[in-house]
Amino acid sequence: MSEIKNENNGCGCGHDHDHDHDHEHVHTVTLELENGEELVCPILEIFEVEGKEYIALLHPEEEVALLYGFVEHEDESLELTEIVSDEEYELVAAAFNELVEEDEEDEA
């Protein structure tokens, strides 16, 4: 099972200081690979498509988005589900790309 973690203790910025300032916290999901290794992936976006929740993770080495369905349990752990059909993947990828484009427009 995967879990969401703050990247660092405290506010997550890695510095020892008072927390009276604003900055983004980096949340991650730790994926356990088939070979037993763990891959810590920052969360890019959590979004909904046709009533189902999805999560986009950043692969830390390849800098590509990994898309999964997910269920969050009461203990705040995540269960990631693979997107198996091409049709579902295309819908999710299109929704994610639209979110990325909106974010880029907002920043400009």
Could you give a short description of this structure?
The chain is an alpha+beta fold. It has one helix at residues 86-107; strands at 2-6, 27-32, 38-49, 52-58, 65-72, 77-81. It has one domain (2-107).
The end-to-end span amounts to: 38 Å
Question: Roughly what percent helix?
Answer: 10-25%
Given helix and strand content, the structural type is: alpha+beta
How many H/I helical runs? 1
Descriptive tags:
108 residues; alpha+beta; disordered N terminus; 6-stranded antiparallel β-barrel; 1 helix; 20% helix; globular
What does it look like?
This protein has 108 residues and is of the alpha+beta class. The chain has one domain. It contains 1 helix and 6 strands, in the order ββββββα. A 6-stranded antiparallel beta barrel has the order 1-2-3-4-5-6. A hairpin with a 2-residue loop joins strand 3 and strand 4. The longest helix is centred in the C-terminal third of the chain and has 22 residues. The relative contact order is 0.16. The N terminus is likely disordered.
